[in-house]
Amino acid sequence: MKAEHTLEEYEALAARCKALAHPARLVILQILAERGTCVCGEVVEILPLSQATVSQHLKVLLQAGLITGRVDGQNSCYCLNTSEIARLRLSADALFGNLETCC
Predict the structure, then answer these.
(1) Is 7-96 a CATH 1.10.10.10 domain?
(2) Distance (Å, rounded) from C-alpha 46 to C-alpha 35?
(3) Domain boundaries along the sequence of the chain
């Protein structure tokens, strides 16, 4: 069986999946998807986590490329990186697409 993607592509997919491997990060993505954009303070108000913890989760999502952010005065605004989310979906579909015909 020949790999459909390069090792670098699989490494990028693994990094994005690792960023998704925490329930708080999934909730943050859901909040951003529902609101379009979000100020970090609003995320803190919704989640039962400290500002520092939310900031760390946002940092992981930023590093994985799943969200984008900008500083606006004292507030940091974040939104989904829709092109990276789309790439993640395509990569996951390509990786798991043949499972239903397996075994």
Answers:
(1) yes
(2) 12
(3) 7-96
Q: What is the pTM of this model?
A: 0.83
pLDDT digit string (tens) for 34-44? 988 777 778 88
Three-point CA angle 66, 16, 24, nearest 5° = 70
**CA–CA separation, 85 vs 12, rounded Å?**
12
Alpha-carbon distance of 92 to 51, in angstroms, equals: 31
Q: Which residues pair with 66 in a beta bridge?
A: none
pLDDT tens across 50-92, in order? 989 998 999 999 999 999 988 777 778 899 999 999 999 988 8
